[in-house]
Write a structure and sequence with these properties.
- The chain is mainly alpha-helical.
- Helix content is 76%, strand content 0%.
- The longest helix has 33 residues, at 197-229.
- It is globular and about 55 Å long.
Length: 245
């Protein structure tokens, strides 16, 4: 049986995002903290490849890129607006909504760009590519789960948003231990996870809270934009599913 182009594209995206990018991040840890200025652009470029694969052989038009750029800017601005509240920020929620509307590839790219852009204000460092990967991976998973039918209702989206805080924390804490300790041990990992549990819970609660407020109106608007202008037709929502929002 012939392999569907969408299925092949998703496999390529999965290899890039789950294998190639983690290898780049690991190389950055081994080579030292100063390599983040090189690692971050590489992660961004790799994040863009699966998104542009969605266009197959045709060249994307500017109108097809604008919604992703706008959502990345909104996510970054949301992080800045809530800078005074540690971890209580809408950035992950906006990334998840983008993934629900435009697909996993767009979700990963939005998360990576939003983190890179917002760190221009919060401060760049060796943590930046890891934050890009964390936020992007949450968007990628949200898009996959939506495509497989798991995230069709507000309550399931909010539950995913809550647990995404712990996923974000697990990846960042793994980098913390691997970058700042001479030996990667279970004891060090558990201690780091325990110390960051409260912060991860706050992030998850904030994400669920903002999803409860933003998911329905934003998804409706993005769906109308997607249908009206024919954006990313193979990666977004089906028209028959629009009433679920």
């Amino acid at each position: 049986m012939p392999v569907k182009r969408g299925s092949l594209r998703l496999k390529v995206a999965t290899v890039l995002l789950l294998a190639v990018i983690p290898c780049v991040l690991a190389a950055g840890v081994v080579l030292g903290d100063r390599t983040y200025a090189v690692v971050s652009p590489i992660v961004l470029l790799l994040s863009m490849l699966p998104f542009f694969l969605a266009f197959e052989k045709r060249k994307p038009k500017a109108r097809e890129l604008v919604p992703i750029a706008v959502m990345a800017a909104v996510a970054a601005a949301g992080r800045l607006a809530f800078a005074a509240l540690p971890q209580f920020k809408p950035i992950v929620a906006v990334v998840i909504v983008t993934a629900l509307a435009f697909g996993p590839e767009a979700g990963f790219l939005t998360g990576a760009v939003a983190m890179l852009a917002s760190n221009l204000f919060f401060g760049q460092g060796p943590w930046t590519p890891w934050q890009m990967f964390c936020c992007g991976m949450i968007g990628f998973l949200a898009g996959l789960l939506r495509r497989s039918g798991w995230l069709r209702h507000r309550w399931s989206v909010c539950v995913f948003g809550f647990f995404s805080g712990y996923l974000y924390g697990m990846i960042i804490d793994f980098w913390t231990v691997s970058a700042f300790t001479s030996r990667l041990t279970w004891q060090a990992l558990l201690a780091t996870y325990a110390s960051g549990f409260l912060f991860d819970t706050i992030l998850g609660a904030a994400t669920a809270f903002f999803l409860f407020i933003l998911e329905k109106p934003l998804c409706k608007k993005l769906e109308r934009i997607r249908v009206k202008f024919g954006l990313l037709e193979e990666t977004g929502l089906d028209r028959s599913d629009s009433e679920d929002w």
